[in-house]
Specification:
Elements lengths: L6 H9 L5 E5 L6 H13 L14 H8 L5 E4 L31 H5 L1 H6 L8 E5 L7 H11 L6 E7 L7 H4 L3 E4 L5 H10 L5 H7 L4 H24 L4 H9 L3 H21 L9 H8 L4 H17 L6 H14 L2
Parallel strand pairs: 1-4, 1-5, 2-3, 3-4
Helix pairs in contact: 2-3, 8-10, 9-10, 11-15, 12-13, 12-14
The structure holds zinc ion (ZN).
Length: about 325
């Protein structure tokens, strides 16, 4: 699936013969690494989809994804594939690349291309080298690459990917066709986030500086934290002090939103037998609402609204959390 904001660029690539060297740059969080891999898959796939992107299930697609296609080489920083490295090459996490300059693509990696580049190709006649991120080439690796780029070979394609293209030596950039991909329009980004079942998409998109994949990452991370807290809260294993201590480590204004929605659901369930926000916790909402009268729930809701005023600069986050959670413990 090509991200909708990159569709046009993808089609442009399909239209002409591929350039000998292509530099794809753009801000973090729009998916340029995934895009570059899709360009490669599109070249090798045995059953391309209607827009000629890779099917993702034929052998060549699998080989590209695993980095083992005989006509394909991936150059990436040495630690990128290592356990615990911060640059895993798939999905959302992939966009969460570390800005660390301590991992480099070395001159040996570039030199290792020499044999590859003189072999005849196995299948489609193309030979592709993907360099991601290209700003991780150290100076001697960049020099070695420049020599390679100065001797174009028929059917050989270099794709360089970078979120910081100005860090790539100008001599290399000038040898590439440079595609600068930008942020999508808010409308397109919002529609995509909603299609991914991200609620409150506008909020996350603003927080991510309009980069949709970054917005998705932030939203999913929040879901993880929120879920863990809800499980602790509804599990009934923790004392008020223990739960308040755990709560005080969270961003409190955000946490208050969670608790307010929870109490809203308790009121909604008490009144109409319905749950609006916590469908995955319906049983817990039902059970907890039984412990309260409607008046008690409304009073709790008011105390949360008053608590909001104290949220920005709480003198003691744990005490504030304790105060706001107290009604739940009194009802036991
Ligand atoms: Zn395929």
């Amino acid at each position: 699936m090509i991200y909708p904001w990159l569709q046009q660029a993808f089609e442009r690539f399909q239209q002409g013969p591929p350039p000998q060297a292509l530099l794809v740059s753009g801000p973090r969080g729009i998916g340029i690494s995934v895009f570059a891999q899709q360009l490669v898959q599109g070249l090798f796939c045995e059953h391309p989809t209607t827009n000629r992107s890779g099917c993702g299930s034929c052998s060549p697609c699998h080989w590209i994804m695993a980095g083992s296609h005989p006509d394909f080489r991936l150059l990436e920083p040495e630690s990128a594939g290592a356990p615990g490295a911060e640059t895993p090459r798939s999905g959302v996490v992939e966009e969460n690349r570390s800005a660390s300059g301590s991992v480099w693509i070395t001159v040996d990696a570039v030199r290792s291309l020499n044999d590859f580049l003189v072999l005849s190709t196995h299948r489609t006649g193309y030979r592709v080298v993907l360099i991601d991120p290209a700003d991780a080439l150290n100076p001697s690796a960049a020099n070695a690459l420049l020599k390679v780029l100065e001797e174009p070979r028929q059917g050989t394609l270099f794709i360089l990917v970078s979120e910081r293209a100005t860090r790539i030596p100008a001599t290399i950039r000038s040898r590439c066709q440079h595609w600068k991909l930008g942020l999508p329009s808010p409308r397109l980004a919002l529609a995509w986030l909603e299609s991914q079942a991200i609620s409150n998409a506008e909020h996350w998109l603003a927080l991510a500086g309009q980069a949709p994949l970054e917005a998705q990452r932030l939203a999913l991370q929040d879901q993880g934290e929120r879920r863990a807290w809800l499980e602790a809260f509804t599990g009934g294993q923790l004392t008020l002090i223990q739960l308040s201590e755990q709560t005080a480590k969270l961003p409190l204004p955000e946490w208050l939103n969670w608790l307010q929605r929870w109490v809203f659901d308790l009121i909604e369930f008490k009144s109409w037998g319905q749950v609006r926000y916590h469908l995955a916790f319906s049983a817990q909402v039902a059970r907890m609402s039984e412990r309260f009268s409607l008046q008690e729930l409304l009073a709790w809701e008011i105390s949360l609204r008053e608590g909001r005023r104290l949220m920005q600069h709480p003198l003691n986050p744990r005490l504030l959390a304790e105060q706001l959670l107290l009604p739940c413990y009194l009802s036991r």
